[in-house]
């Protein structure tokens, strides 16, 4: 639907967060845009879109030289992080064949606030150097040698970022009206960027009927008239001028992207002088330079947009349509795609029917294969409870698998993160991939996730690959803000030494309120520093030991051992033991460390048929991961970190799958008291994925 003058309105917003982006999460860099060159990028994304271009009936013209703006232009809201508020709203603008993404940070040319340079510097520890050269910000240009200068093309307070004869994108840097500082006295990155996107005016429409009445035949003369030249009539003794056959020009669409993150920024926004040319209520005062805005996309948070000052400011754009794409639930949210509510009884009945079908199919196969002798390896006896679970209560420890996919997020599996809930004794995170905070909010709710972040005792990171740590800074910033003004110790972060370089560079953006420990210093329990010993005691843990594994260099697994406890009659009960592999090939060090573990959480990236690929990428197959559990006498094995080629359930041989192991899913929770029943999980999960298999 084209954006045309109409009464001011906030249209219903239909948006989705099902599309995830592989992007370093940052609260510091507010809004930045990416120049997209690939024509097909994101064309099939499940998103809300609203057109904002010229005549909707116009034929799409790929040739700029004919009419560069006589094509539909529109906006797509890729997702606004509304359910968990852990990511920034993402917006895609289509102008003919040009595409510009706002708030996605992994494409061709990236513009943003000047402090984005610090984020780029932090990312260089795990992102290719080629991408580092693509960051830029308003006010910075490069000379012929590629060196950065401090001046740029500027009109008033507008920085012209792009003007290619088709679209002009300019930026206004918005600073808070007074400096903000956190409890450490450091200044967090506080600049925000407003973008103004203007298409060229739409060329005057040729009136063929008028041309016919003036005796002008079809041919090159009509093209000359469109180009502004007068021509001689073919049938009449008159000169025909362009005004005789061309209608008035139509101003090109103008789209504003407004990010006003705080009330301090709002004071500055209201004082931006160059906005006067876009206000409808000042058009009469500046007739030669006034411009009509078609669409305003508001990325500002609700506590800003709902103020009287902001609402009055919005009304100054007259008939412009306003899209509220910030973190808020909008009136008119389209619920047409939501499934109907199904009762628990209906779900149970459906699953029982599927389970019965599986049993019948299995019985038929058994009859056909009755003559085949199958010899299974003898299994260790895992039907009896281990000593550590004697008299166990449900408030001792719970494992929540926040992300079970490898490499990058997908619709069904986020990247690596394991949350260990120790209840009254706090909690730990093992790895912290992108969107870990969002997963916590999906599992515990907004307020519950805040409590989880407050209670964190330690975050342990296995290695420097981005899918294992790019959610870390967001968690640390959230904890810092939640504990502001409350006495507390910095959060201990344990990881490979390269992670320290990244965190130190990131702290130029904002204070992270953490203490870093190298995994090398936690390889043996007797080398643990005092601050970690204190944390372990408070968490009811005896040891935390990092174990070198075979993946990248360096990479680690981790062993956690709970302190012994005394039961009601004074008997000493050994503490539970949990091992998390990180990413690894089966290796001697991890096998040795996993001896008689209560739970082994092991990566199983590839199916057994892809052993060569697993070896090449230093990952494990299904059977290899299960073999580690066999060798170590582990009580229960949870498999995770599956290749994204398996979107819902990984490929494995059911006949070889032991009853002491299970496949993990995002947000799956396993209480220590329920480990005995974990062996029944796979059997009951089969009906859920009958159609998939």
Automatic annotation (TrEMBL):
<dbReference type="Pfam" id="PF23023">
    <property type="entry name" value="Anti-Pycsar_Apyc1"/>
</dbReference>
<keyword id="KW-0862">Zinc</keyword>
<keyword id="KW-0819">tRNA processing</keyword>
<keyword id="KW-0255">Endonuclease</keyword>
<protein>
    <recommendedName>
        <fullName>ribonuclease Z</fullName>
        <ecNumber>3.1.26.11</ecNumber>
    </recommendedName>
</protein>
<comment type="similarity">
    <text>Belongs to the RNase Z family.</text>
</comment>
<keyword id="KW-0378">Hydrolase</keyword>
<dbReference type="InterPro" id="IPR047151">
    <property type="entry name" value="RNZ2-like"/>
</dbReference>
<dbReference type="InterPro" id="IPR036866">
    <property type="entry name" value="RibonucZ/Hydroxyglut_hydro"/>
</dbReference>
<keyword id="KW-0479">Metal-binding</keyword>
<keyword id="KW-0540">Nuclease</keyword>
């Amino acid at each position: 639907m084209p954006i045309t003058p109409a009464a001011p309105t906030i249209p219903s917003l239909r948006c989705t967060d099902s599309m995830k982006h592989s992007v370093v999460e940052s609260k510091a860099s507010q809004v930045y845009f990416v120049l997209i060159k690939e024509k097909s990028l994101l064309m099939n994304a499940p998103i809300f879109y609203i057109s904002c271009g010229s005549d909707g009936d116009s034929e799409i013209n790929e040739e700029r030289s004919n009419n560069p703006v006589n094509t539909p232009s529109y906006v797509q809201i890729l997702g606004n992080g509304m359910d968990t508020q852990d990511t920034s709203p993402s917006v895609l603008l289509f102008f003919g064949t040009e595409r510009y993404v706002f708030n996605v940070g992994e494409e061709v040319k990236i513009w943003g606030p000047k402090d984005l340079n610090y984020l780029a510097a932090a990312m260089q520890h795990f992102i290719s150097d080629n991408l580092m050269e693509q960051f830029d910000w308003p006010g910075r240009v490069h000379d012929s040698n590629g060196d950065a200068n401090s001046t740029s093309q500027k009109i008033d307070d507008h920085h012209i970022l792009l003007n290619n004869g088709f679209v002009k994108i300019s930026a206004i840097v918005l600073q808070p009206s007074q400096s903000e500082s956190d409890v450490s006295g450091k200044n967090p990155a506080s600049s925000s960027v407003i973008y103004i996107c203007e298409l060229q005016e739409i060329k005057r429409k040729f009136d063929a009927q008028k041309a016919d009445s003036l005796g002008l035949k079809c041919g090159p003369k009509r093209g000359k008239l469109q180009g502004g030249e007068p021509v001689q009539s073919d049938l009449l003794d008159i000169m025909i001028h362009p005004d005789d056959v061309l209608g008035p020009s139509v101003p090109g669409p103008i789209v504003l992207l407004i990010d006003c993150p705080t009330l301090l920024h709002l004071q500055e926004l209201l004082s931006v002088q160059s906005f006067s040319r876009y206000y409808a209520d000042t058009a009469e005062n500046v007739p030669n330079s006034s411009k009509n805005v078609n669409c305003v996309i508001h990325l500002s948070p609700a506590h800003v947009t709902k103020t009287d000052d902001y609402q009055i400011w919005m009304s100054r754009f007259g008939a412009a349509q306003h899209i509220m794409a910030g973190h808020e639930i909008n009136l008119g949210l389209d619920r047409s795609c939501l499934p109907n509510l199904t009762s628990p009884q209906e779900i149970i009945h459906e699953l029982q029917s599927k389970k019965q079908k599986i049993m019948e199919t299995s019985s038929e196969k058994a009859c056909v294969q009755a003559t085949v002798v199958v010899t299974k390896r003898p299994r260790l006896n895992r039907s009896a409870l281990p000593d550590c679970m004697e008299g166990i209560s449900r408030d001792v420890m719970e494992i929540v698998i926040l992300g079970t996919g490898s490499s990058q997020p997908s619709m069904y599996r986020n990247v690596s993160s394991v949350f260990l809930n120790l209840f009254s004794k706090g909690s730990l995170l093992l790895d912290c991939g992108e969107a870990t905070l969002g997963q916590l909010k999906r599992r515990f709710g907004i307020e519950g996730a805040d409590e989880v972040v407050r209670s964190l005792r330690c975050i342990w990171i296995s290695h420097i690959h981005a899918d294992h740590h790019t959610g870390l800074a967001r968690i640390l910033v959230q904890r810092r803000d939640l504990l502001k003004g409350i006495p507390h110790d910095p959060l201990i972060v344990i990881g490979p030494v390269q992670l320290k370089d990244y965190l130190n560079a990131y702290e130029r953006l904002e204070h992270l309120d953490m203490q870093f420990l190298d995994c090398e210093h936690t390889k043996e329990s007797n080398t643990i520093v005092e601050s970690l010993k204190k944390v372990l005691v408070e968490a009811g843990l005896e040891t935390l030991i990092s174990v070198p594994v075979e993946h990248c260099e360096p990479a680690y697994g981790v062993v956690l051992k709970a302190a012994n406890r005394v039961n009601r009659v004074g008997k000493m009960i050994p503490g539970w033991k949990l091992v998390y592999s990180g990413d690894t090939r089966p290796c001697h060090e991890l096998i040795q460390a996993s001896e008689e573990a209560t739970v082994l959480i092991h990566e199983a990236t590839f199916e057994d048929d892809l052993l060569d690929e697993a070896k090449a990428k230093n990952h494990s197959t299904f059977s290899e991961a299960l073999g580690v559990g066999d060798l170590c006498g582990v009580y229960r094995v949870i498999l995770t970190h599956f290749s994204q080629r398996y979107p819902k359930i990984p490929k494995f041989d059911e006949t070889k799958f032991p009853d002491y192991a299970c496949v993990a899913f995002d947000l799956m929770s396993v209480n220590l008291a329920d480990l005995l029943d974990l062996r029944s999980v796979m059997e009951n999960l089969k009906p859920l994925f009958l159609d998939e298999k």
